[in-house]
Structures are given as structure tokens and as C-alpha cells.
Amino acid sequence: RAAFPPSAIVEACGSYRRGAADCGDVDVLVSTPGEAENLCAVAVERLAADGFLTATLQLTRDSTVEGSQWMGGCRLASLGRPELTEYTRHRRLDIKVYPTRSRSFALLYFGSGQAFNRAVRLWATRRGYSLSDRGIRKCTRGKNDRGEQVVL
Predict the structure, then answer these.
(1) pTM for this model (two decimals)
(2) Residue 19 is part of which domain span?
């Protein structure tokens, strides 16, 4: 939490949010009222310097489609017992950063199960909309554009 500004909302998503007994990785959603583009990279640098992040699989800084993400491995500190460090397991961690205006869509996408997610997207498609983790758009048939953003 300390790696992000106080105005950011940091939430566990994925299987943890759904209440699953086991989870393969930890998904963290960060939403911020400010610019989301560099927030992920800055937080990753800080968490890596602290020794929490141990491996980077992917770091995406996408300035054309607001937001960014980091995927990799992490390891909790051995709680002041350096002799246990080598036995502490590494875990998969995904950090996804979005502007606040996309938070509800990102929560739906990363916090819901696969079947529910597909059903909601199909429902939107049948009504002429395209639903993603970044928002909902009115589809325009016959045009090669992304459609108009719907403001909720």
C-alpha cells in the first residue's frame, strides 16, 4: 500500500475477491484519480528496491489506452529472520493500474468469474455495446472505429 499515493485505491481482485479457497496468483487493482501511466512503474521500482518483487515477466506502460500493468513474482520478507529467506516461497503477482473513471469496469473484469464476465459482455454486445476492462462503448456498425465512449 505504501508504494502508491494516498489517493489511490488498492484492492485485491481475482480469486481472492471471489472468495476462492485457493488462488494461483494475486491480482491487485489500483485506481487513481491522477494519471495512471507512470504510477505502476514507480510502484514497481519501489517494491523491487524493498525486495518484495523478485522477477518481472511483463511491464506494460500504455499511454494510448490509459493505465498500465506489471506481472511477475514476489516474496514476502522472512519477518526479521534472514535465515528463513531462502525458504520463503515466491508467488505470482499481477498489478493493474487504472484511472478512477475505469475502476468499476476493471473490478467487473478482474473481480468476477469467467462465466459471469462472458455473460455480461454478451449481454452488452447483444444490445449494441462493447464492454471491456476500461469502459463501455456504443458499437458503430460498418465503421472501422472503436465507437463512442459511454459515460456513466
Answers:
(1) 0.77
(2) 9-112
